Amino acid sequence: MNSAQAKPKVVFEAVSKDFERRGEALRVLDPIELVVREGEFVCLLGPSGCGKSTLLNIAGGFEAPSAGRVLIDGEAVSGPSPQRVFVFQEYGIFPWASVWDNVSLGLRHLPKDQIYATTQQTIDLVGLTGFEKSYPMELSGGMKQRVGVARALAVSPDVIFMDEPFGALDSLTRLTMRAELIRIWQTRKPTILFVTHDVDESIQLADRVVVFSPRPGRIAGVVEVALPHPRDLGSNEYGQIKNELYELLGVKHAI
Amino acid sequence: MIGALLVAAACAALLALGARLPTAVRRWTSPLCVAGLACASWHLACVLTNTPVFPTPTRSFAAIIELGRTPRLWQDVTASLFRVTWGFGLAAAIGIPVGLWIGWSTRAFEALNPIVQFLRPISPIAWIPISILWFGLGDVSAGFLILIASIFPILVGTTAAVQNIPQVYVRSAANFGLEGFDLFRRIVLPAAMPQIITSLRIALGVAWLVIVAAEMVGMRSGLGYLVSDARNMGNRYDLVVAAMIMIGLIGIVLDVLIRRLQEFDEVRWGFAKR
Fold this sequence. Notes:
Chain A has 255 residues and is α/β, with parallel strands linked by helices. Chain A has helices spanning 52-60, 99-103, 112-125, 141-154, 171-188, 199-205, 236-249, and strands spanning 8-21, 24-37, 41-45, 67-72, 75-76, 84-87, 159-163, 191-196, 208-213, 218-224.
């Protein structure tokens, strides 16, 4: 894949963010410059409180930057849009609606038969066939998050923002979900911005890992992961990238 | 006296045995045993104090049966239920939409919450003279008092329910382009529904609670009227207690009925399973 030749999809132009606290401006994000290309899978990696989620919320249109702007397809983001869908860590899906109603949420404007076909197709894609009538409280954590992913995919968005979507899952389910996400990403090829604080997760998923340093958030470095999927967690290259990321994070690898 | 002691002993034994009984059985026996113990102590207290006026449990239950033989009891029960139904129904019909509005709109909250909080602590009993002045003696007055009593739990509960909707739901909705009535119907109302149901449950309890006060506005029927009437007609305390028991029992039935609302698929998520 020639991601270097693909056109820019999400462009951060000197995006910074200050929060007001007791009359004082608290800097959360130093100006961020970043270009994410079409179809690229980019992980934003950093410790909690480094502003990576804030940056994602700005890109998603849920928060306004204090300065700078985010361009998607050359247009400045001014609010949320079904073309760019957010997958939240948990509770993002609606507990009062069945799996079917959750997934079809964004398809309201389509003709009935199209809603039906797309919903079923997306539910099948994320492996929830047979659970259409179930309610979220009847599902496991991993299945709930599949619903969240399906709801996002159903509207065929160009860009998917994921804010630590697998953070609440156990480590085995998390591995399965990563593999599933890569499979789905390879099928649909949306542009994905994925926030995580898990180094392994970022290497397993991303084309590029953008490492953030904490308070105020800055880009400490960008690491290309040019390994083919499925990625071998035991390979030398994997270990090298891991070392590189730990170094950028300022954490000793061996404890 | 010996009978009461035997009942008390049997109930205490059955309670002590509770842990060994199957849960399904215990769920019925434990509350019944507590009721049995309460009745036994009540009876003993009557016997030991040798009271001339206070009725024993046997006399009180006999009074219920006596009332039940005449059409009076059922007329009183239906009259009270009728007043509570429309007082409470009106409270819900006004309280839920207004609460949704106050909860959703910051400006409505700023403007209206102070007056809600100002009116809320005024007892419905204080409204009795005004109610009679406005609506005269009759069903309208009684219904109005029940409305006053039960609208505030609904109003405050619904407002809080909307204000507590997690941001992530609102953001998800915005992300998928939901707005206006669609946003309200598909997100705001269902997200707030469990807490609204809880507030309805509390409000129905309050509505039934004030039935005695509400029927002081010159009503000639109803369980509340029965309480004051029985005392006035020659200190029939057995009828007073009989009416109180009926009010309590119907209160349980009402609560069981309204709790059924919690079992719908759309709201089950809001009620923790133990």
